[in-house]
Design a protein that fits this description.
Blueprint: H1 2-6, H2 10-30, H3 42-53, H4 63-66, H5 69-84, H6 86-97, H7 103-113, H8 121-149, H9 155-167, H10 186-201, H11 203-214, H12 222-245, H13 247-250, H14 254-269, H15 284-296, H16 309-323, E1 330-331, E2 334-335, H17 338-365, H18 371-382, H19 397-412, H20 414-422, H21 425-428
Helix pairs in contact: 2-3, 2-5, 2-7, 2-20, 3-5, 3-19, 5-6, 5-9, 6-7, 6-8, 8-9, 8-10, 9-10, 10-14, 11-12, 12-14, 12-15, 14-15, 15-18, 16-17, 17-18, 17-19, 18-19
Length: about 425
């Protein structure tokens, strides 16, 4: 069996791994004791399993109404496995039993985390698990304190569930209306935003920043600088524009208006998918702004989805260099290798192609004249965001299949999906830096 797996490219094994998780999740959610009420259909269970493993958060049925406590636990486990990555979890279990990792595990981990050559996968796996546990435990404790003080029922379980869901940028909630009841609650907004940003930015960036503080002579990598600046500039710009342009926020008190606009800008860019205000009630201008933030997405080594900030930055750097007539593409004084530009361009083209295809199919399959709702749904699914303007619950069976496919492709990464289908791993693996 091991010899057989070694002959399969790591890219295809990555697809197989996530597909296996979804299959197991589908089976688990289909068990009678995992469901509540009248039960859930097979297609809706598959939709929920895919949404959980892909850390999207779109749901055709209400999680607290449709699933029992066991079902909720099963969803949370799938979110955790999908957020941390199936290869990370499997490798950590292996490391508990042995000192080294099989070469196949190492190769898949490099793809999953966009690691440069020479990076210690063993140390990364251990550190990612400990980092994840520390952040999620701290988040659960903080949320429990807030929920308990407000008399939230099952405060401990709600805190654990929402802490993991936020860090994994999954957006699943056990509250019927998401986090809309906490729109004016500063602490819930702040805690969830912090967890989401930590997950979206990723351990590698935090590790690089910490190393630069411990050893001042060590400079932060170009990738780290791009991710941090792109993340916070995009959130700040989205925050300001939503604050100024969204009509439904105009009548809110200034503090609540700041919280609502900032939270929704953050939730779109990090692809966490929580909402403190009804997304379907936003004006078209702010809706388009959020769509752009969802497409841009999070860090390549984080738990979020989207096109990734580094790919967008590479495209911007190429454009600037072309307009200035430069022969080489530079970013903040650093030359960007040609292969990274090629990979970024391929990612952009492949992402847009899948987005257009998914949106076109949904427009054909859905009986609705609300173009913006369908396009927003496609962008949310492919970006593994989880925000919706109300279309998810109205999806036809074929529409659900399209969204399931978009969520799956979004989780493994459109360019990874394309390379796996094209068997392009041999050329891809020769690069000395896989981060795009």
């Amino acid at each position: 069996m091991r010899n057989y797996l070694s002959r399969i490219s790591p890219l295809k094994l990555l697809l197989i791994g996530y597909a296996s998780y979804i299959l197991l999740g589908w089976i688990g959610l289909s068990l009678p004791f995992a469901q509540a009420g009248d039960g859930v259909s097979a297609i809706d269970n598959l939709f929920t399993a895919t949404s959980a493993v892909s850390t999207t958060g779109l749901a055709t049925v209400g999680t607290p109404d449709s699933y029992s406590f066991f079902g909720e636990m099963f969803i949370l486990v799938m979110i955790q496995l999908g957020g941390v990555g199936y290869m990370t979890t499997g490798s950590f279990i292996l490391l508990m039993q042995r000192q080294t990792l099989p070469s196949t595990n190492e190769e898949i981990a490099k793809v999953a985390f966009s690691l440069p050559e020479g990076f210690s996968v063993k140390e990364l796996v251990r550190n990612v698990i400990f980092f994840t546990a520390a952040i999620e435990i701290a988040g659960a404790i903080a949320l429990y304190s807030v929920f308990q003080s407000q008399g939230v029922e099952n405060a401990a379980w709600q805190a654990i569930f929402h802490s993991i869901s936020a860090f994994c940028t999954a957006g699943f909630s056990l509250f019927p209306n998401g986090l809309e009841s906490f729109q004016s609650d500063f602490w819930v907004n702040a805690i969830v935003a912090t967890l989401s940003l930590c997950g979206a930015i990723g351990f590698l960036v935090f590790s690089d920043v910490a190393r630069s503080f411990v050893k001042p002579e060590t400079q932060r990598t170009l990738t780290t600088r791009i991710i941090l600046r792109a993340t916070f500039i995009s959130v700040a710009a989205g925050w300001a524009l939503l604050f100024l342009t969204e009509p439904s926020y105009q009548s809110l008190p200034t503090e609540q208006r700041l919280l609502s606009s900032g939270f929704q800008a953050m939730t779109a860019l990090t692809t966490v998918g929580f909402n403190t205000s009804p997304i379907g009630e936003l004006a078209l201008g702010p809706t388009f702004l959020m769509l752009l933030l969802m497409i841009m997405g999070a860090s390549p080594s984080g738990t979020g989805g989207g096109l990734k900030s580094t790919s967008v930055s590479a495209a911007i750097a190429t454009t600037i260099s072309t307009l200035k007539g430069r022969d080489k593409v530079t970013f903040w004084g650093c030359e960007v290798p040609a292969y990274r530009l090629s990979l970024a361009f391929a990612s952009l083209v492949f992402y847009v192609g899948i987005f257009f295809t998914g949106g076109f199919l949904l427009l054909l399959l859905q009986d609705t004249n609300k173009f913006e709702d369908v396009v927003f749904e496609a962008a949310s699914a492919l970006g593994t965001v989880g925000l919706s303007r109300g279309l998810t619950g109205e999806l036809t069976p074929l529409g659900k299949i399209v969204v399931i496919a978009l969520m799956f492709i979004g989780r493994v990464g459109p360019i990874t999906f394309g390379l796996a289908l094209a068997s392009g791993w041999d050329g891809f693996r020769k690069r000395d830096d896989l981060a795009v």
